[in-house]
Amino acid sequence: MMNRFALVVSLGLLLALSGCGSVPDDQVSQDDVNDPLESFNRAMWALNYDYLDPYIARPISLTYVQYTPTVVRRGVANVLSNLDEPSSMVNNILMGNGAKAVDHFNRFWINSTFGLLGLFDIASEAGITKHDEKSFGDAIGHYGVGKGPYLMIPGYGPYVVREVGDSVDGLYAPLTYLNFWASMGKWALEGMEKRAALVNQEALLESSPDAYLFSRAAYLQRRDFTAEVENTDKVDEAEEDYLDSYLEEGF
């Protein structure tokens, strides 16, 4: 069993790379960038990207994906995703997305009962759309709460202060019943799947003239996208769709 540090890194480095789909630096307005600790953040980026990811997060993630049967991984992923449906339902209600909230509600009760606590995604088979997860940070961002300062946390990855609000999601059942280690396990398993899915996209980051700016721009854009913040700048819709599908890439 991985120790606590490896669990943190497994998901953390996923976040460090997860914004790096194909979004150029200039697609996020510099007026929207709040990076007062850029020198520190760049140093932490180098630590994460040059050492922690290639020597810990990446090999652990690929080992998990390669040696765990696909049917087992899919079942685990379904269960973990099902745990987030109620919080996404509440946050979509707060954001005024009634139809999506209903879908989250129906997915949860159907998969929790007929799908054996979410092990099988019966709801998708029944034609109920699986939407992106919404956090409380997305909900308050939707109503104008700014992202706050950008931070690159060692062994974790990019973070904006608004994400502190995501802790509210843990107050809803069934997430509230998870203890610390169960939450860490969920965090790590989801992170390993997503990190492994990014292997084919690594060249995009490596070819960027400034990987730090590339990552930061895409991450901040992703935060606006999930909060459904209206962007007054002209954005390539094809790029937006690609980034969304890339970040939600499964197996």
Provide key terms for this protein.
MlaA, 11 helices, 58% helix, 2 strands, 3% strand, mainly alpha, two-stranded antiparallel sheet
Structure write-up:
It comes from Vibrio ziniensis. Residues 1-21 form the signal peptide. This is VacJ family lipoprotein. InterPro entries: MlaA. This protein has 251 residues and is mainly alpha-helical. The chain has one domain (4-84, 139-247). The chain contains 11 helices and 2 strands. The chain has helices at residues 4-18, 38-67, 70-83, 85-94, 98-113, 122-125, 136-142, 180-197, 202-206, 211-226, 237-247, and strands at residues 150-153, 157-160. Strands 1-2 form a two-stranded antiparallel sheet. Helix 1 packs across helix 8 and helix 4 runs antiparallel to helix 5 (98-113). The longest helix is centred in the first third of the chain and has 30 residues, at 38-67. The protein is globular and about 50 Å long. The two termini are 23 Å apart. The model is unreliable at 1-29 (pLDDT under 50).
**Outline type:** globular
**Relative strand content:** under 5%
How many structural domains? Answer: 1
Termini Cα gap: 23 Å
Record the SSE blueprint.
Layout: H1 4-18, H2 38-67, H3 70-83, H4 85-94, H5 98-113, H6 122-125, H7 136-142, E1 150-153, E2 157-160, H8 180-197, H9 202-206, H10 211-226, H11 237-247
Antiparallel strand pairs: 1-2
Helix pairs in contact: 1-2, 1-8, 2-8, 4-5
Family: Belongs to the MlaA family.
Protein name: VacJ family lipoprotein
InterPro entries: MlaA (IPR007428)
